[in-house]
Hints:
8 strands, globular, four-stranded antiparallel sheet, Immunoglobulin-like, four-stranded mixed sheet, mainly beta
Amino acid sequence: MGLSTHVLDTMHGTPAAGMALALYSLQDQAATLVKSLVLNADGRNPDGLLYAHDALQSGRYRLVFGVADYFRSRGVDLPEPPFLDQVSLDFGVADPAAHYHVPLLVSPWSYSTYRGS
């Protein structure tokens, strides 16, 4: 069913429009960039799924979210170095026929994620 993400800015109570995101495929110690993008006004991939249902494989993946740059672009005065610069989420796909939704709820000081539907 594919792979998707959605980012919510919990500081401002809005989707994280304009946040940079990179998706990597992980093999042993190597990370291979699959795609990089900027989230749309709804805090999602403007092209829909990160992986379509027929392209998703079982294995390990990493999503890297550009948190500090995003909050700086919103005018938030962050310390240097920021508490959260990039948030990297490593996760596994055991059943590529299932849908994997990896949301991120984030502020400059905290984040939460879960496997959504």
